[in-house]
Fold this sequence. Notes:
Layout: E1 5-6, E2 10-14, H1 20-32, H2 46-55, E3 59-66, E4 69-77, E5 86-94, H3 103-117, E6 122-128, H4 132-140, E7 144-145, E8 157-163
Parallel strand pairs: 5-6
Antiparallel strand pairs: 1-2, 2-3, 3-4, 4-5, 6-8, 7-8
Helix pairs in contact: 1-2
Amino acid sequence: MIRDRVTPSRVIRTVLPAEAEHIVALHARARATYYPDGLPQDGTDWLAAWQSAIARPDGHVLCVVEQGRIVGLASFRTPESAAADTVRLFQFHVDPEHWGRGVGTALHAACVEEWKADGKLTAVLDVHADNRRAQAFYARLGWIPDPENPPADGDHHLFLRFCVTGE
């Protein structure tokens, strides 16, 4: 379990089950920024999905709290089909009102610290092809296109890989 990371104005900690609705709202605000025609209505029950992610014993959901408000979140775990030393970053969002303030960088550092503590060597994720801001953010932090998972024709996601050990 991750230890709380505290600065004078910021805490990074594990999300509490009672915070699921706040997580859903932040998730929607962040995703809306890269869907120019609005969020797709694919029938996903995001409240149930986030409640499940928070409750999973094999998963981690971290949040960044500033002045009592959740402003960033990350969800990760090792998928069943992956090697034990691989972790997948399923969700990573910063409230758009807090972009450019170091929230994402601090949250990513907390994720990497947790991955190292858990013995992970590789992290993977997929990012929406239209989310150029996220792609640039991940590139700055050392994520590269995943050579083992190139995008398929018509897929709207790019697959990235990160060396947790930094080597």
